[in-house]
Design brief:
By secondary structure, the protein is α/β, with parallel strands linked by helices. It has helices spanning about 40-50, 65-80, 105-120, 140-150, 165-170, 200-205, 250-270, 270-280, 310-325; strands spanning about 10-15, 15-20, 20-25, 55-60, 85-90, 95, 100, 125-130, 155-160, 180, 210-215, 290, 340. The radius of gyration is 19 Å and the shape is globular. The structure holds NADP nicotinamide-adenine-dinucleotide phosphate.
Length: about 350
């Protein structure tokens, strides 16, 4: 009988716990910024991730204003084994007023931990990440409150997201910080470079034994093989306001996508999606690549990104294609939340 041999999921440790090198991203599953996703599809995607060897599931209270966490709780109950899920959720965003602002005040953190544990219906969270730095609350104060959650057994490990080196250093003086979650993909590589006298985030994390969980690893689908020239996204879909998907930049990025697509096919027999996902894992210092999905079948392509590597010459060719095609690069800064009025 014909049987397809599966390539094993690659693993890494975060604070001693084994996690998959691909993690499921559940922002889209929240259902508010990427089009509607049914409860059934969302739960099937989360359980489908575990069935494909993915134990790290990244969520956040802001994704669907609690919906993504609630659905993860339901998926864990439907699956039946809490220990098969490594829950990475977040704290420190506030949507109670106009718009979304960073809020890591002790009061907000205490409200959020209880709400997250309740929605997830679990006794502890494996990795609790500060979603965005709150520039008006001292980082030390935030770190102290979060360290208390670890002490109380509500959280196993602490992480941050979108933090600079100075911000991680300030946090680390008060409580051990195990991970950072920055944007990173073939087109968005700010963390590889030093900025304004500050060290580059990615090598700094590697040198300090911190895990790096990359978000937008597929560049919000631009590198996933489905996006074509001139494609329009519905109003309310985050990509309808993403400057990369708006002309004239969109055409430049599509030239690069097509160049990488051809290169990946001719030299590695891979799709652009498989190649772009592998590229993230093969950059020095990356621990986990988050992969956003709304349906379980979208995770099947992960198989083609496992068990091979992108060599130095191929990395250089990718750099050449991007430099040749993208004349007016732009980052994901449009995702930055507002600053809280004190
Ligand atoms: P992403 O992973 O870069 O891209 C996800 C999109 O790629 C999907 O919605 C889907 O697009 C497309 N895709 C996935 N699998 C595919 C397949 N097999 N074939 C074709 N297209 C496929 O997106 P992301 O949501 O920005 O990043 C992933 C996760 O990172 C999020 O879910 C979230 O957990 C996290 N994140 C964190 C932050 C932060 O500030 N910490 C910010 C952003 C994201 P379609 O929807 O068009 O099908």
């Amino acid at each position: 009988m014909f049987s397809m041999e599966k390539t094993a999921m690659e693993k890494i440790r975060i604070a001693g716990v084994e996690v998959s090198r691909f993690g499921l991203g559940t922002w889209a599953i929240g259902g508010t910024e990427w089009g509607a996703v049914s409860d059934e599809d969302a739960i099937a995607t989360m359980i489908g991730a575990v069935e494909r060897g993915i134990n790290l599931i990244d969520t956040a209270p802001i994704y669907g204003r609690g919906r993504s966490e609630g659905l993860l709780g339901r998926a864990i109950r439907a699956h039946g084994r809490r220990e098969d899920f490594y829950i990475a959720t977040k704290t420190g965003l506030d949507w109670s007023g106009d718009g979304v602002v960073a809020n890591s005040t002790p009061k907000r953190l205490r409200e959020e931990i209880e709400a997250s544990l309740r929605r997830l219906s679990v006794e502890w969270i494996d990795l609790y990440q500060v979603h965005w730095p709150d520039t008006v609350t001292p980082i030390e104060e935030t770190a102290e409150v979060l360290a208390g959650f670890v002490h109380e057994g509500k959280v196993r490990a602490l992480g941050v997201s979108n933090f600079s080196v100075a911000q991680m250093e300030a946090f680390g003086k008060v409580a051990p910080v195990r991970s950072n979650q920055p944007p990173f993909n073939i087109f968005e590589r700010e963390i590889e470079q030093a900025h304004g006298g500050e060290e580059a985030v990615l090598p700094w994390c590697a040198a300090h034994g911190m895990a790096v969980l990359t978000y937008s690893s597929l560049c919000r689908s631009l590198l996933a093989g489905r996006v074509r020239r001139g494609m329009k996204f519905e109003a309310g879909d985050v990509r309808s306001v993403d400057p990369k998907f708006i002309e004239p930049r969109f055409g430049q990025y599509m030239n690069a996508v097509e160049g990488i697509e051809k290169f990946a096919r001719e030299n590695f027999g891979k799709t652009v999606l498989e190649f772009a996902a592998r590229w993230v894992l093969d950059r020095p210092g990356v621990s986990v690549a988050l992969w956003g999905a709304k349906r379980p079948e979208q995770l099947d392509a992960i198989q083609g990104a496992l068990g091979w590597r992108i060599d130095h010459d191929a990395m250089e060719e990718v750099d050449r294609i991007v430099a040749e095609c993208v004349k007016d690069p732009v980052g994901p800064e449009y995702l930055t939340p507002g600053v809280r009025k004190t």
